[in-house]
Every structure is written in C-alpha cells, then in structure tokens.
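It is worth pausing here to work through a concrete case rather than discussing structure prediction in the abstract. The textbook approach is simple: state the sequence, then state the predicted structure, then interpret. We follow exactly that order.
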Amino acid sequence: MTELEINTPLSPELVKKLRAGDMVKISGIVYTARDAAHKRLCALIEEGKELPLDLRGQVIYFVGPTPPPPGRPAGSAGPTTSCRMDAYSPTLIRKAGLMGMIGKGERSQAVIDAMAEGPCVYFAATGGAGALLGKCITASEIICYEDLGAEAIRKFTVKDFPAVVAIDCHGGNLYLR
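Step two, the predicted structure:
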C-alpha cells in the first residue's frame, strides 16, 4: 500500500500505476455528478451531441453537496452510493474519456471491465465524513444542469482530498479481499 499525492486531470500512465489499497490525496479539478446528470450526459453521447464539459482525463465525484456555510465554497460533501451510476459509467469511460470516479460501495462487472479498457480508476471516499471532505473543497462553480439543484454538475477545486484506490484498472478490488 502506497500513499500518493496526485493531481487532476489524470494521465493514463498515472492511472495504470495506481493499485487497489493505495491511499491518495487528490488536488486539482474534480467534477460532481450523480445519476440524473449521468443520464443526461449519456443521452447526449448517444445522440452524437457535444457534452457541456470535456471529461477526458477527468474525475467525477458522486456527490450532491449541501449548501455552503458562510465563507465556504461548499457544505458537507460526502460520497453517494456509486452503483447508482453503474448504468452510465461504462459509456462515460469508453466514449468520453473519463479516467477517475470517487464514490462509495462496490461497482458492477460492466464498470470494472470498462475501467480496464479505459484506463480508469475508482476511488472510495469515506462515507459519513462529508463535513470533513467538504473542507478539502477550495472553490465550487456550477457547470451545467442547474435545474438539478444539489445534483447539478459542479466544478470543484480540491486540495488534498483523501481517498483510497478501491478498484484499479488491473482488476485489483478492495471489495473482493
């Protein structure tokens, strides 16, 4: 197990170096999206339309943050259950170039297979620690789908966001240990 400081966007070389169990601190841009936003993104891909953001090399955090307290860019920002995005993640990995996902819980075999092809990595963040994770967010901006409220796609700037590589692109999977 290794502890690494990584920056976004991710490169294929970095993703291929990461192994299940590695502890990471992520800094840079991370986009937020949950199932409703994923559904819209995949519909655009299926229609051959341009996405409202470039996902190549990017990381999506499965989160719907709470409103920010005074002086903060975001409130509590704990991960949501990732399997709700399993119907959409393979498309975003294969067709949009997504290289990282942050959430909690297991992923389907279809997602794991797409991750191996990507390459793509799945990071787990600690559920129940949303208030602490929110403190790693230094800036927040709504990118699209404002009508989804907390589930709008946001561009977070994060500093030392703690996570663990839960599933790597080589088939390493903490959930199977």
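Step three, interpretation. The domain at 3-172 is CATH 3.20.130.10 (fumarase). Helices lie at 12-17, 35-46, 89-96, 109-117, 130-134.
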